[in-house]
């Protein structure tokens, strides 16, 4: 971050005081106005609900140009990473800043692979849940519980413990996700297999049963890898900011990631992939796409077209482009080229992209629009979609958490408020209250 000496913003207040605020430039992207000292100097806070104009940190990890529809991880385009890397390569990049060479890659693969098993006692934890619990509810609980099992990697002041915790999280979250799924089915948990790649192993833990051999389809394993890559990180979104805020108090990494999972669950964020499939199912039942588009446009109707719109992208989400292409490949591989749900998704996309409401508000399909269609074709139930998002995003959360801990400017996150409640008043005893 560089301070642009020629660029000082001037703020004048109605009381006649004015303040000079430094402007900083990043590598690319909009400059930022520093307001760190504004309160102590001027006795004023800034007000920005939803943080639409607020940069909460500096970061080297991910860059989004929302107007152009560009997403970069450590400077590399998401399309290039999705086409040429496997998930652990991208995970290494996010965590370490550079793509690994062959030696570094195999050492990293080996490191993650040897952390995939969970403490056997953790399996008992699942018995406390109802079988029909939502898998995201189970994830919040069990991932948070990791801090009760791995005491040797919860000291955030020790870089070696932070590294082990990071590897453990990337390695164990898929195992826990698969256990959550198996628990919901009443099937036995499937142990990880270290001879498989990250995505192959995940499919194996999700879909194999002890009674018969499970053959991993290479097209599906590749698609799984792409889906994981496309969700790996996305700058300071709600769940990542949650992880950073939780971590800013010094909480241990397992607790922070569990907080991120909770934030991801909401339908405006990671829960949208599940919501898209429910929406497409409902449209299929009624057979009226136009009715849903009309509802989405009605300002008096809270319904939104799920999988459309984004806080940052005011252009096509580049992840959605790769996702749509992957949907084609997967549907072909599983013999569902004429899948009605995919046809319907394409029809809905076309109608929305030609509609003045969506054009004027710059609402384009986002990553979640097609991911549900692919995941459903691969055999995943919709209740597990957001869990897959959490598996993929764990590395992004971990990278951002590490960056925050290592940032010398890091302090506990503590936003302020515009108080609109009652001013001080006299207490009234319960006998005298009307
Ligand atoms: N359908 C209909 N109208 C919409 C939609 C939509 N999907 N999204 C935004 N709008 C309208 C909204 O009503 C508002 O209109 P107006 O200006 O007349 O009040 C305008 O567009 C701006 O919307 P906003 O709510 O101020 O925008 P936001 O940046 O606060 O919200 C969003 C972004 C993603 C929450 C929102 O677009 C949305 O709810 N989309 C559907 C849920 C979804 O697909 N979420 C996944 C996001 S991508 C995955 C991830 O990274 O988590």
* Structural shape: globular
* Category from helices, strands and their pairing: mainly alpha
- Number-wise, the strands total 6
What is the element string, with H for helices and E for strands?
EEEHEEEHHHHHHHHHHHHHHHHH
* Oligomerization category of the chains in this entry: single chain
What is the strand arrangement across the widest sheet?
1-2-3
What is the distance, rounded to the nearest whole angstrom, between the alpha carbons of the first and last residues? Answer: 58 Å
- Indicate the percent of residues in helices: 40-55%
Provide the residue-averaged pLDDT: 94
Beta content comes to: 5-15%
Tally of DSSP helical segments: 18
**Poorly predicted regions:** none
Ligand catalogue: carboxymethyl coenzyme *A
What kind of sheet is the major sheet?
Answer: 3 strands, antiparallel
What is the alpha-carbon Rg in Å? Answer: 24 Å
Write the layout of secondary structure elements.
Blueprint: E1 2-12, E2 18-25, E3 32-33, H1 38-42, E4 62-65, E5 70-73, E6 76-77, H2 78-84, H3 87-96, H4 102-113, H5 120-125, H6 135-145, H7 159-185, H8 198-207, H9 218-230, H10 238-248, H11 253-264, H12 272-286, H13 289-297, H14 318-333, H15 340-353, H16 356-360, H17 367-377, H18 385-406
Antiparallel strand pairs: 1-2, 2-3, 4-5, 5-6
Helix pairs in contact: 2-9, 3-18, 6-7, 6-11, 7-8, 7-18, 8-9, 9-14, 9-18, 10-11, 10-18, 11-18, 12-17, 14-17
């Amino acid at each position: 971050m560089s301070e642009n000496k020629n660029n000082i913003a001037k703020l004048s207040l109605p009381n006649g005081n004015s303040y000079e605020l430094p402007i900083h430039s990043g590598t690319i992207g909009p400059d930022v106005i520093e307001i760190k000292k504004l309160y102590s100097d001027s006795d004023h806070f800034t007000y920005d609900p939803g943080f639409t104009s607020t940069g909460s940190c500096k970061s080297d990890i991910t860059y989004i140009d929302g107007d152009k529809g560009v997403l970069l991880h450590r400077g590399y385009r998401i399309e290039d990473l999705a086409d040429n890397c496997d998930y652990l390569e991208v995970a290494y990049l996010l965590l370490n800043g550079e793509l690994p060479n062959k030696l570094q890659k195999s050492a990293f693969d080996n490191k993650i692979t040897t952390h995939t098993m969970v403490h056997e006692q953790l399996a008992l934890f699942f018995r406390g849940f109802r079988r029909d619990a939502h898998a995201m509810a189970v994830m919040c609980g069990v991932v948070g519980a990791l801090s009760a099992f791995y005491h040797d990697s919860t000291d955030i002041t020790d870089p070696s413990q932070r590294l082990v915790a990071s590897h453990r999280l990337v390695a164990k979250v898929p195992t826990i996700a698969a256990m959550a799924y198996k628990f919901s089915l009443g099937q036995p948990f499937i142990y990880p297999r270290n001879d498989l790649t990250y995505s192959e192993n995940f499919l194996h833990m999700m879909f194999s049963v002890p009674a018969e051999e499970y053959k991993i389809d290479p097209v599906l394993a590749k698609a799984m890898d792409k889906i994981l890559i496309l969700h790996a990180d996305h700058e300071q979104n709600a769940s990542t900011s949650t992880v950073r805020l939780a971590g800013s108090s010094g909480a241990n990494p397992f607790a922070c990631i569990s907080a991120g999972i909770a934030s991801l669950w909401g339908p405006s964020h990671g829960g949208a992939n599940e919501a898209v499939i429910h929406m497409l199912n409902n449209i299929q039942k009624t057979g009226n796409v136009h009715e849903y588009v009309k509802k989405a446009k009605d300002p008096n109707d809270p319904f939104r077209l799920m999988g459309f719109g984004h806080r940052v992208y005011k252009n096509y989400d580049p992840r959605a482009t790769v996702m749509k292409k992957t949907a084609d490949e997967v549907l072909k591989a599983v013999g569902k080229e004429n899948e009605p749900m995919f046809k319907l998704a394409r029809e809905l996309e076309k109608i929305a992209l030609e509609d003045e409401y969506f054009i004027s508000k710059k609402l384009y399909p986002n990553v979640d629009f097609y991911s549900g269609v692919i995941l459903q074709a691969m055999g995943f139930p919709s209740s597990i979609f957001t869990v897959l998002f959490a598996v993929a995003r764990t590395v992004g959360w971990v990278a951002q958490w590490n960056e925050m801990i290592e940032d010398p400017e890091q302090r506990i996150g503590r936003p302020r408020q515009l108080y609109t409640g009652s001013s001080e008043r006299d207490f009234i005893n319960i006998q005298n209250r009307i």
